[in-house]
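__Protein archive entry__

___
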Amino acid sequence: MNQDAQYEIQEITIKIETPDGELPPAKVRIPNVPTRLSSLIPPMQQLCNGIVGLTIRREQALGSSITCRAGCGTCCRQIVPLSAPEAFFLWDYLNSLPSERQDQIRSRFAMIREAMEASGLTSKLSDLESVKNQEIAWEYFQLGVPCPFLEEESCSIHLYRPFACREYNVISPADLCADPFNNPIQKLRIPKNMTTATAMLAAKLFEVPPMLIPMSLFLDWVAENEPLKHRTWPGVWLFNLMLDYAT
């Protein structure tokens, strides 16, 4: 049986206007079936890539260049904020890996949590404002703990990396990144922040204040909020609502 015949498929054209120009219109086919928030992340990642690409081209036209390179993992030792949909998406990704690989990554998360608890950071990172707090971010950076997905100073989940990582692009000299809190780091200003957009969407759907989850603690957060991970909404309605926040 033709799978499309089992449920309605709606084709949606996405048009995004940014200060750096308009993204080429993209068409996506959305099945109108019960859909979890994690299912929104792949198309939003592609949208994020397009917006970041426009911003990079603007800087290149102005004579600047991105100094981020594979092998430079300084930014991978900072707090990475996740929206709830991203946390659910990464949970699904991690659980799709072979068990041996899962164990390896989970052990890294456990070591980071131990370091955070020993320094008192776990209790400090409890809400949206604390994740954004620069003093707390500096304390975390001083721990020197790498992202559990960082291997040989490169991202092992580059294709699936969070929005915050996609949007973090530096045009200042790379050696300044050794101390990004005290050196004059110049980061690209991305006009559409997908971490915020997906966080706002989740806040509306769950009827709670907007939240950000530190990636270092996301396994605990998802485990504590398991029922939310499985909630669904009509696919086309959910995707259109997401676009309202993202565009």
About this structure: Residues 41-61 form the longest helix (21 residues). The chain is about 45% helix and 10% strand. Residues 3-242 form one domain.
